[in-house]
Amino acid sequence: MISLDQVSKVYRTKTIETTALNNINLEVPKGEFLSIMGPSGCGKSTLLNIIGLLDEPSHGQVTIAGQQVQKYASKTTSRFRNEKLGFIFQSFHLIPDLRVIDNVELPLLYRNVSSKERRRLSEEALESVGLKNRMSHFPNQLSGGQKQRVAIARAIVGKPQIILADEPTGNLDSVMGNDVMDILLDLNKKGETTIVMVTHDENMARKTNRLVRLYDGSQIK
Questions:
Q1: pTM score
Q2: For the chain, does the N or the C end have fewer beta carbons within 10 angstroms?
C-alpha cells in the first residue's frame, strides 16, 4: 500500500544544509497499522508529510496505493490525495465557525458529490465515532476528545484507503487518548484501513502492528 525506496529529504538555504530524512526504505502492506517513533526533530513529521504527498523527497521514489508519485504539485496528485488519503492532526484543525457536520463534509466538497450524499456520508462518519448527536455543535462546544473524534470522522468520510495520523492522542488525557486509539484500531481491523501514526507514546505504539523508529533522520534497524 505504501512503498518508500531510498527516500531522503534535504532542506537547503544559502548558508546551511539540513538532512531531515536519510535513505528511508519502508514497505507498509494493506491493512497494517504502523507506528513511527523517535525524538523531536528526528524526521517523523517529514516522513508522514512525504507519505501524505504534502512534501516532496529530495531523492528516492514514493509509491502510494500502487501509483508512483512524480509531480507533487499536479492536480492529479491533489485529487489522488483527496480520494486515497485521510489526515488526522494533533491540533485537530477544525474550522471554528463551521458546525461539526460542515467540518466533516469538507473533504467531499472537492469531489463531485451531491449535498444530500455529503450529508449522508458525514452523518455516517460521525455515527461511527459516536458523535452523531453533536453534528450541529460548533468546535468550541466540544471537549478535546470530541474534537479529535470529529477530526477522525472528517478523515474517514471519503472512505480513504490510508489514514495518516500525526500525534492523534498528543493533546489528550489518557482516558480520551485511549478512546481515540480504540476508534483507530477499530477502523484498522473492521475497515482494513491502512494507518500510519506518528506518536511519542510508547503505550499507544505497542497497540499497533509494527513500530518503526527514527533517529537523526535515519531508520533504526
A1: 0.92
A2: C
Mutual angle of helices 115-128 and 144-156, in 10-degree steps: 130
CATH number at residue 45: 3.40.50.300
Amino acid identity, residue 28?
V
Structure confidence by residue, pLDDT tens digits, 124-169? 999 999 999 999 999 999 999 999 999 999 999 999 999 999 999 9
What are 16-36's pLDDT values in tens digits? 999 999 999 999 999 999 999
| 214 within domain boundaries | yes
Closest CA to 90 of 203, 211, 209, 200: 200
Query: Would residue 134 count as lying in a domain?
Result: no
Let me know if residue 78 belongs to a domain.
Answer: yes
Q: String of b and e for 93-120 (b: at least 16 CB within 10 Å)?
A: ebeeeebbbbbbbbbbeeeebeeeebbe
